[in-house]
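Risk register update: the risk of archive-format incompatibility is retired. Evidence:
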Amino acid sequence: MSTHDPKRLLVAVNPSASFGRHRPVGPVVVDALTKAGHDVHALERSSEGELREALRVALGGGALGDAGGAARPDALVVVGGDGMVSLGTGLVASTGIPLALVPTGTGNDFARALGLPFDDPARAIAQLVTLLDGSPRPVDALLARGSQGETWVAGGVSAGFDALVNERANRMRRPRGRARYDIALALELLRLRQVDYEVVVDGVPQEVAGTLVSVGNARSVGGGITLLPDAVVDDGLLDLLIVDRLSRRAFLRLFPRVSKGTHGDDPRVRMSRAKTVTISAPGVVAYGDGERLGPLPIEIEVVPEALLVYAPISTS
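Archived output:
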């Protein structure tokens, strides 16, 4: 069935994205969008660096995929997890090219924030076909500035316990899926680190002896751990979470509440909103959308409506 508004779509596929147990999801997405009447060009490369460079050329109006062409795409569709969201956001934020998601990853936290099906690729593909008949919605993006330059982030930046879990999980080859994150989480709990931070919130510095520091635009990390229960993707503000220094036993007691997003009334938890946040601490690495940003210090600024997305519901 033809769409009312055929679009020129660039589809970027994570080679490890799967549909069901054995079926690759990329061809399913391309087939569904083509049948809907869109002009679809798929890009899949063996490495993230090669994929990023090919996308950069195509989004700039260069050769689209392997079929050639010079027209600027009407949207970038990313197929994969939060890593693909990070890749897509870095390429299209502030360009006016919309981003569309088919979440197939372990966490899919930005998809959760947008109200997209995050655990059912078939439903996500069907919904995407419908969404492309409408208009994209503007949401905020985070601009992170650190030792490795400027990086666009869609969902959130972590620089505490959650970042350490990401660092460990990314070093692990087994198991795959959510279990790897859960094991990394358990191992980091065993060696819980306390960090002395300097956090500057809208120009006001504060010394923080903390366990967890997270700045975000989305509510959750790690596949639904609701660190920032009040975060909204289009309110023009960052949500900041600071968990004070805790013993391992106290943190273990608090963590179930953090996971469920019911920790806001705990006196050891501080939540606030800001336009810019700078985080400094020795020996700590920051992560954005689950991807390594580099060592602290890092400055995070919210850029209102910097990203256009195809989302099913009003985001406010």
